[in-house]
Amino acid sequence: MENGQLIIRTSNDFSFSENLQYLSRSADECMFHLRDGRVTRAIDVEGEPVLFRIEGHPDGILVTVDGEATEGAKAGVERFVHDWLDLGRNLEPFYELGERDPILRDAVRLHHGLRVVGIPDLFETFVWAILGQQITVSFAYVLKRRFVETFGRAIEADGVTHYLFPSAERVAGLEPEALRGLKIPARKSEYIIGIARLIADGDLTREGLLALGGDRAIEHRLTAIRGIGPWTANYVLMRCLRSPDAYPAADVGLHNALKLVAGMDRKPTLPEVEAFAEPWKGWRAYATFYLWRYLNSEAERV
DNA sequence: GTCCAGGACTCGC
DNA sequence: GCGAGTCATGGA
């Protein structure tokens, strides 16, 4: 094995190709680059940019760290990948309940080994969630790309530009008008800058939120912030704070997936959305993520 | 032109 | 506490 390489061993409930399929869902994704079954991206490790790539390996995931690849950089990348792909999760209980559940069965069989792909950076998660409110995912990707290319740090490697997500400190110093040229709606710009200031001032941290205890306490804290409603709070719980049970019940994509899988001629009402999830308690974030994935794969099939 | 997208806020009651 | 109107952009 080369100097900058390491292998992260994974369980049978992890499929590199399934997660790669999810990561390749948008050509406008700007936080990593895909080619030949490999994912390359830059992250911040203790203030320094580190470029790395991951690919499938018979024993798990092969990680290659670019450049000097100090022990600190390798450890930081390993931590990141572990969090990004939720590698510490034992999915057996979820798959057992999925096999028993008529709504989830096809999704868990078809996408076995998929993880709730995370967004380890708290600020990035908030921005992505706010941008995604009420607009199509494809347009949200366009807005995110403009935002990242304008305010993020760029790293050139092998003719490809990689970006670090803009820091909360950088965005905290902006005025909403600075985002107008990117076609980010004025109100969303206010939300984003407000969150950036909370994070930059140390008033909003991942550790601080997790210390609140359960999902309900965290949701209560988050929805007190301007621009954060129940959907966004649960989205952040799912993608960044790693709750396996977060449930963005108002999600339109979830509604469409339930309509499809349950064979309904209309979208479910909110009480129905809650009722569907009753048997999924403990795993509602995983159920939601699999249903999103299933809806996308069905759409691609047509 | 109308409707819908991975919602949230404000206002009136 | 709850329903209706508003916000902004882009694709079908």
TrEMBL record:
One of its GO terms (biological process) is DNA alkylation repair. It is an enzyme of class 3 (hydrolase). The keyword Oxidoreductase does not apply. Its EC number is 3.2.2.21. GO terms for cellular component: cytoplasm; protein-DNA complex. It catalyses: Hydrolysis of alkylated DNA, releasing 3-methyladenine, 3-methylguanine, 7-methylguanine and 7-methyladenine. The keyword ATP-binding does not apply. GO terms for molecular function: alkylated DNA binding; DNA-3-methyladenine glycosylase activity; DNA-7-methylguanine glycosylase activity; oxidized purine nucleobase lesion DNA N-glycosylase activity. It comes from Bhargavaea beijingensis. Signal peptide: none annotated. Keywords: DNA damage, DNA repair, Hydrolase. Residues 131-296 form the HhH-GPD domain. This is DNA-3-methyladenine glycosylase II. Belongs to the alkylbase DNA glycosidase AlkA family.
